[in-house]
Amino acid sequence: MFDYETLKLIWWGLIGFLFIGFAITDGMDMGVGGLLPFVAKKDAESRVVINTVGAHWDGNQVWLITAGASLFAAWPLVYATAFSGFYFAMMLTLFSLFLRPLAFDYRSKIESVQWRSNWDKALFVGSMVPPLVFGVAFGNLLQGVPFGFDELMRVTYTGSFFGLFTPFTLLTGVVCVAMVLMHGSTWLVMRTDEDIAQRSVNIGRIVAIVLAITFALAGVLVWQSIDGYVVTSAVDTMGQSQPTSKEVIIVAGAWLHNFERYPLLWLIPVSGVILPLLVALLLNNKSNSVVPKVFAFIASSITIACVILTAGIAMFPFVMPSSSQPNHSLLMWDTVSSEGTLSLMLAVVVFFVPIILAYTLWCYKKMWRTVTLDEIEQNNHSAY
Amino acid sequence: MINETLVELSRWQFAITALFHFLFVPLTLGLTWILFIMESVYVMTGREIYRDMTKFWGKLFGINFAIGVATGLTMEFEFGTNWSYYSHYVGDVFGAPLAIEGLMAFFLESTFVGMFFLGWERLGKRQHLMATFLMALGTNLSAMWILIANGWMQNPIGSEFNYMTMRMELVSFSEIIFNPVAQVKFIHTVAAGYVAGAMFVLSISSYYLLKGRDIAFAKRSFSVAAGFGVAAIFSVILLGDESGYEAGEVQKVKLAAIEAEYHTEPAPAAFTLVGLPDDEAMETHYAVKIPYALGIIATRSLDEEVLGLRDLQKAHEPRIRNGMIAYEYLTKLRAGEETPENIAKFNETKQDLGYGLLLKRYTDNVVDATEEQIQKAVKDSTPAVAPLFWAFRIMVASGFIMLILFCLAFYFNARRQIEEKRWLLKGLLLALPLPWVAIETGWFVAEFGRQPWAISEVLPTFLSTSNLAVSDLVFSLIAFIVVYTILFIIEMYLMVKFARLGPSSLHTGRYHFEKAPELAAGLRSQNS
User: Which family does the entry's similarity section mention (chain A) (predicted)?
Assistant: First the structure.
């Protein structure tokens, strides 16, 4: 159907698509969880906030699971290297992710104040730690990660957990957290009213501006002080997965090469700065019309796609550059599964994704309403 | 060199997290269908009590489901974090079913589980029933893809080693889907999940009947579970895993180990009921045997032999020697000496490369292994017998006790005498842990019996780990044990609380704890 080179390119796009899908859908739930302590002042308000995503967070989380499993299937060496290299960061993410399913389901099952406030804290931690770690991880990818392979392709990571945190990676962590908080607030503005909606507007505006500033600042750092990577040997884009047989050098400013080569691509990072400002303008609880609220949510979703794409394009064709052995860097050309697996998985994705989107949207449509304090009171024993 | 402590800790961590996750999965598999049955009756008859049953058992299902989701995330992470060489070596093949599981099954299950819990007011009756069905379907499809992946680990067909990429690559996906080991595993495992779901509802309903509370509710729940449970337990036992033990070398080894059959016996072999397996002497002491039984169970015939461990090990020795040759040519090819002759030599021997890799435990170069090291590797090529022997017997014994209990429950329920049979109700209540005992020991047999391999005859377990420090593993293992213990206590606290409360937890005003005592007593006599 497609040749190997095209398949590799498509899979670079698909992995990006799945991670963007995760950030837009489950990022929204994480944003809502992160906003919970700030927009809800009493128990009933917390329940309103939680019930705006109650029916959807689990389905949304599957984007993460599917993105991870697709990484395993399409880029096994990236999955193996990133997950084992970032061992403690991954464990931290994993243990935080435990908290959300339990908090959603268990919180309102018992009417104790202590019980509920503990689960609210759990939900906050479970919602904020993963985006922070993912942001820090992306920063590390841009900086390069210290790893290399032996002759049997066994990977050894030589960095440390605390080495993951540099001013730059902390900044990318903040970008990621601000992004999900902004997204969560646009969702709450659409789905709640009165006090909660107003608080969401107030916080949403602030985090949107923080996002625009930190994202621009990260861009400046990539331009001025983060070295990029360049492949100097010929890359066999049709070749088998052999990431150790090429030559790579570290070049200042190399992460801007793709933008310099195709200036139209600048639209993506520029949108990543402008759209959050648009979100800040659109966020508003005064008008009765839902239209600007929906536009704010859409602008926020596109922002997320632009931010992630910016990092992906800057590094292309690198996926995971090695700072200690640059020649062992992982490229989307030389770290992929076999042609057969990529074709098979492409067919599966093309078949199932439209179906998934269709029934997911149907569910959102069915559950669409403004969640109010009255509704929670009436469904005291069945709502989350 | 291989760090044995790291390997041991990695194995313990995977075993603990997988077995812990597997406490919750089977109940989800079974309860979703039971919920679908109850809700179908509600939609067909319009009788409120069946909606209440769906909602109440759904509440308990939700408590279990949440922790199942949380602990399931670990499994997704752990292949990469702790088994990175495994992930590289087989990701091309093994990753595909996991990704398909996400796309085909997980999305379906997780999207509609939200509709199941929170969609009662927002969906029409039929729409909600459909959501329940899709949730159950998603759950079961998910099990199917996981077991296809696991079946491939037991019997890795449809794939081939590529020396250039240094990994296994997909050749035929249909072979992997229709892998006979995966097929029987799927049926056996989901049916075991149905047994767990049925026993759960049966035991807790028995508790209400013994307490004399919410009789009408309990009796109807009991009926559904008894019928479903009888069908499930027969499926588990009749369609047991044994039929899968013929396909693939490791499955044969597993069978011999389960039976502690060190010597190949003339067909049809006897079944060892109990005994004391001794791996050093390779003998089973004090064996109590049932003539002919093993041969018939394992081969479904009277004249086929079941190979013993001594003969199986003997057959592994030449394969290890052959694997050394494969390794020699692999190193040459990896070093760039890709002559047609080297490629041909490698292709001749590569089916035994995995056996050669067994020597990596003793010598990094493999090709320079001494005679003594080869003999050690031969000894390593089969798993320890005693744990398998006993785990299997505990599983089978639990299965047969449950078979009897389900049959009695079904019989007396059909004759409408169940409330008088208090001994049976007590027995059913006490039997609540049995499905979990059987399921956990069964999973242990399947995975421990695969040793020393991660991928049967392809990749030894000790080679599959990540290059981590022992301290990394100590830290994460302790963290898992502590956090999982806390999660388990919270889950059990809620489960026991709501199970005791019963349908009164729905706050409909129709059930035991919501009524004035006299009224409750009056209704009780009216019901019975």
Answer: Belongs to the cytochrome ubiquinol oxidase subunit 2 family.
